[in-house]
Amino acid sequence: MNTMTTTKTPTTVLDANGVTMRFGGLTAVRDVDLTVNTGEIVGLIGPNGAGKTTFFNCLTGLYVPTEGKVSYKGTVLPPKPHLVTQAGIARTFQNIRLFANMSVLENVLVGRHTRTKEGLWSALLRLPGFTKAENASRERAMELLEFIGLADKADHLARNLPYGDQRKLEIARALASDPGLLLLDEPTAGMNPQETRVTEELIFAIRDQGIAVLVIEHDMRFIFNLCDRVAVLVQGEKLVEGTPDIVQSDERVVAAYLGTPFEGAPGAEEAAEVEAAEASTAKATAATDADSNTSTSTEEEDTR
Ligand SMILES: Nc1ncnc2c1ncn2[C@@H]1O[C@H](COP(=O)(O)OP(=O)(O)OP(=O)(O)O)[C@@H](O)[C@H]1O
Ligand SMILES: [Mg+2]
């Protein structure tokens, strides 16, 4: 099945506009714009603590952004996770969130839940409509397990799966909600190179099914190989966005990863202020120490 549109002008699937997320005094995401178009795989990279997961949480309604709005296929999304899933955005989590004591198949069926119309009474009374819907759900869930390569482990408990398979199962569960956009938060974390390559192929196959993908990863080889476009977050701000070639050759990106200061770096002004404050505190402390030097060293000796 290939539902990818072949129109020349791409349609915007995701449009995040001016997204800001503050936690008290900390601005984790600052005024970030990002779009993802039909047929695209877009990467989101940045050093640890840059705000990548927080941005995902803002897109999926887990956090209500302090400012900004998120639209999916032209409609502004209410910041409620179940409504976002219903609209067509699915995600996986940086820290795997599976139902450990449920089977692999059951985990996928949970993901299917948003797409089944049968209600609670129908399920409890096992009405004919429910049985039919349940059979269809199981069929679709098995199809997905086949697609990601876990069909032979459908009856295994999720907690008994190797780590790499658990990450894949999370993807299958996300796909079960029939999304138009899939958000992946570090899908290859903890995987060996072979598993990473398989995941790369899997994501290409997902894209080929007409699902746009936004992916966070620290593995640069993986990101630059996979993505049509890459955005770089540094200290909550979007520093650069472009093709893998453009991003790789941008000196500011290298500097941000190495922690080297550069002109106009996000957070540079705040960092300079903190540095100046620290320097003046250190100076004041040194002066006080000099004044009470003799007594301090005596106290230290006494306590030994
Ligand atoms: N719920 C929260 N409350 C307070 N601060 C938070 C919360 N969630 C995230 N932060 C802070 O926001 C900043 C960005 O964190 P985030 O997890 O989004 O970074 P990240 O880019 O995903 O990092 P990593 O690559 O390590 O996963 C960090 O300083 C973090 O401590
Ligand atoms: Mg993260």
Describe this structure in words.
The chain has about 300 residues and is α/β, with parallel strands linked by helices. The chain has 2 domains: about 1-90 and about 180-285, Rossmann fold; about 100-175, no CATH class. Helix content is about 45%, strand content about 20%. It is built from 12 helices and 10 strands. Strands 6-7-8-3-9-10 form a 6-stranded mixed beta sheet, with helices on both faces. A 4-stranded antiparallel beta sheet has the order 2-1-4-5, with helices on one face. A hairpin with a 2-residue loop joins strand 4 (about 65-70) and strand 5 (about 75). Helix 3 (about 105-110) crosses helix 5 (about 130-150), helix 3 packs parallel to helix 6 (about 165-175) and helix 5 (about 130-150) packs across helix 6. The longest helix is centred in the last third of the chain and has 24 residues, at about 270-290. The radius of gyration is 24 Å and the shape is elongated. The chain binds adenosine-5'-triphosphate (ATP) and magnesium ion. Adenosine-5'-triphosphate binds near residues 28, 46, 49, 50 and 94. Adenosine-5'-triphosphate (ATP) binds near residues 48 and 53.
